[in-house]
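Friendly challenge for the regulars: who can give me the structure tokens for this chain first? No prize, just bragging rights.
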Amino acid sequence: MIEEVWRALERISAAVARVPFAGGGGRRVSVETVVVGAGGGELARWCAGESELGDALAALVWARYGVFRGQPAITGTLSWRVAARSITLAGRRGSERFAETLAGAAAVPIGARRVARRVPGVGVERRACDRCGGPIAPGARAEARYCSKRCRQAASRLRLRELWGPPARVAPERCAWCEDPMPAGLRPEARYCSKRCRQAASRARLAEARGRGRGPGTDEPTPSDTSLDASLQSRPRSPGARGRAR
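First reply, four minutes later:
Bragging rights claimed.
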């Protein structure tokens, strides 16, 4: 796999590819790739996500430092020297300097990543979101499976639904209002056999809330309504009220 990256650099006549990076210590992460030709001229410059080859060259930085969360201030440069087939990493972490020479395919942790598809022309494998299939950012954690918080939460909700599932609903055999048999083809949560019964039940609930509930299938007032009307009719009216009524 790493040999294909070297061949991709040779195809564009690159002599050195440098990946300067900075992050940690609460500041914004910066990673870019600069490819230089044999004559010293700059052949290409890419930020993260702009080029498959650029992302492959910067993969070691992301694999080592992740998104730099919890890290002290780190600055450095990852260098790929084509003629010598060498990879070096040097910089400063906090107040300490570091310098390493990296060799072998293990230096680029492509095989350790979740593989979803190949990038044509370079042969570097990149990750894709388990839910939507979109690309996962190169700076995401090695164990990341989703491209965003939205996809991660949606996948979690789906797993919970599959695990527990909604309670099975059983359609009632008779209408909750008229008590006739329920017709076939209604939704499991249906309680009434028709729109007419559903509306009648709704009106009854509203009337009951006002203290004037009516029984199913009749327009006759309830005993409480009758006694209330009788008490109103028998209540004596004051002379002033009679005068006002006239």
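The beta strands are 14-24, 27-37, 42-47, 74-81, 86-93, 96-102, 117-118, 125-126. Residues 167-216 form one domain. Your move, everyone else.
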